[in-house]
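mind reviewing this fold:
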Amino acid sequence: MNVIILEDETRAANHLERLLLRVAPTMKILAKLESVRDAVKYLNTNAEPELIFSDIQLADGLSFEVYKQVNVKCPIIFTTAYDHYAIEAFQTNGIDYLLKPVEEERLLKAIEKARHFSPGIVLEKLLAINRPAEEKAYKSRFMVKVGDKIKSVPVEEILVFYSQEKASFIRTTDAHTYCIDYALDQLEPMLDPEKYFRINRKYIVAIGACTNILAWTNSRLRLKIEGIDDSDIIVARERVQEFKMWLDR
């Protein structure tokens, strides 16, 4: 998830960044901005982030001025030392209101709420409800190169999709590894979400691969997949609850 931070206090911005690295390591902080002017300029010249962490009192005014000048559609988590702006905050795209100093547990709950209410996710859920079953066409096979030959691999035989050294690979049930021509961000919407789950920025796993799951540090989970010697097969902390629900369907 790509995010930006609007915060005029360097110490507070760095504190929030450290918390995010700890509780949501898959998040990418695109920018830390100190003023209404800088925020408006950034949002008008760059792709909109998926989430904004916004202080209310910025260097040159209230952050509400940003949202009056720019039509922001992504959710906003407000972080502030004042409690009397709450009503105005929720008149924007505000989904949570965290009082400083921001606590790790409250931050994690706010992030989980943001994932749940992200416009893209909500839209996909609405489309899924109204989409006829026959239109739910997910990719059924992948073409891979084996030497000078081309092979078709049914998606049911793929245990995991993963990225490594700027390339993407699949690991199959018969213990073979193949390179494929898709980035994980491209793959995610191609795969049936009932059968595949993206646990972090490097791995999408099949339900059949989730047979050896260990409790890990910082409330995370680690998966062991035969044939892949990588300690990074870890369910990101902000995805653990959703991952458990996916397993329990």
